[in-house]
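Same chain as my last thread, 697 residues:
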Amino acid sequence: MYFPFQKVIIPFIVMSCFHRTTTSKIYMGVASAFTSSSSPSRMRTSSSFLLQWQKLQCQQKSTSSFTQTKQISATTTLLHQAAATTTTTTAAAAQTQQPSLKINLHTITLDELEQFLISLKQPKYRAKQVMSWIRDKGITDVDQMTNLPKNLIQLLKEYTVAGSLELVEEKISTDGTRKRAYRLFDGQLIESVLMPYEDGRNTACISSQAGCAMGCVFCATGQMGFARQLTPEEIFEQVSIFASELKSQNDDRLTNVVMMGMGEPLANYRNVMSAIKRMNSDLGIGARKITVSTVGVVPNIRKLYQKHENEEDNVPQVRLAVSLHCATDEERTALLPANRRYGGLDELLTTVKEYIDVTKRRVTFEWALIENQNDTPDVARTLGRVLRRHNIRRDMVHINLIPLNPTGGFGSGRPSGKANVEAFVKVLEDEFSIKATPRMRRGIDIEAGCGQLKAVVKKKEEAAEQKRKESISAASAAVDELQSFMDQGRQQNPSPLVGVYEDDEDDEIEEVTSSLTTNINQDLRHGSIVNFDICETAVSLDDDEDDFLDPTYQTKDELDEAQRLINLVTNSFPTPPPAAATATPQKSKKQQQKDQTQRLINIVANSFPPPPAAATATPQTSKKQQQDQTKTTSITDEDAMREARRKRKKLLKNLKAIEKLREMESDGKILNEEQLTKIAKEEEWRAEVESLEHNLK
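reply #2:
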């Protein structure tokens, strides 16, 4: 398949300079297309461009955006934070994550690693050293690669990662079987199993899809549905991880691989074959040690034995295993709905015969034994007759009897008992000379069956999600209750407005605010000249001290008392000594006698009290006349005097504002209609100020 390199890669590299997030996704697609391409030479040609672009992307700094939120009170803030923390902590694992733009040491090829190190200005031979640590010694921690220089170790730490699969859960059986659940970059879960045997074999059971679309009713994965295809790198990495761990821990090697994990391998044919080629070339696993299992995807079974003109398109000589499970179309379609989709048993067995005739390789038929359904001697005889009818050689088939793994979605089936299994085997071997072997049950205590661990993980996540929702609901209820309590408190005891006093000036403040809002010019631009209106209620720090006198202390009795206290304090200090004799020129003798005489006159005059006022000098006013005199002014009471002072203060501010407006007018500023109206009131306001000052005196 030809891939338009110039039309895709060059615009792709240019576009990467503009949007990192978008190009990350495009990179994954382009890299996958090249990896799964039928021409490895084209993939190697493009690898240097992709790797150099990848290096540039790794050097970019990621930025975060922060959002600002408004909290009503400190208590509600804490409750919201508690709810948000619960949400973030529990849901983080389920959120989709962007793929990391780093080189995966488990999946990179030797040629690609050489190109990558050359782009980092490192010697080419360093790639073989790194690969030797990973493939031969099972070491993926670059700090343990002792023959590498420090600068290269630092570069590998910065630009590489030992695997992209996130281990979510691992279970180890008493028989040594290890079942793992991995999370992919987009949040999907897959499973891998490592099964050690007493004869020294180490077999890895690998997934090829996230989920499965075949819909087998007795399979846990088939009950989950299909999510997506795995890439060649994701398939190969499952095998590479097990191979590295066996070498690093036990100095052992991975001997066999079976594609019997999650998914239908032949429904992901291109990616599976690409990964198998690398298992053979990079990990040294023989093609005959790799088994591909299928429910019967007939078109792709034919690809396994067809010859292609391009040698690179031919697939390795892997083993084939077919999930048969039933001997009639009706029964098989009930258990495996894909049976009808691919032509039924006749089409499948005809293709299997062609595969055997062309490849000369034996085929394994998998048979999940379900008690009293497909484990009886009669079913075994039906199977033998079907194989004989299609002329399938007895010595080229093997029946692999699998004990049923119970799942929650298939409640009607149970594993067959020992007696039924032995009877089934006896019929096949004695009557049809077909070899049948019951498979040893492994990992049954850790639910090692296909899709079972994923189902457990999903249940845990669903329980955690339910708990998270309950926590959020409880926190939200607490927030709502607290908010309701606070609202109720505000209605009963409204909070005062800080810095605003509710007095007679409220209406005036509203009028001023309305006038200012009306005068705002909506067409203002940067650099425009703005005319300002002086607010009538603005406080000027240059006002007379009288404006800041507290009217509470301005009654006559209180002023007299204040003056008395001032005098008392003043007289408590000693009189300063007279100035030195030399400071004042000495008076003449005649002047001294004159001053002495005046002092004596003053003493005598002050010795007598002042004469009382004559009773008839001023006629005494009656009570009625005093009341009439009191009514001559309306500002004799304290409230009226306080109001008069406030009004005088306001008028003085207006007059000062008029002075500023006149200065603006003299400077050439054009005043608006409201400003001119204020200037016209100057005489009226001055007269009113004089009247108020007269009455206050």
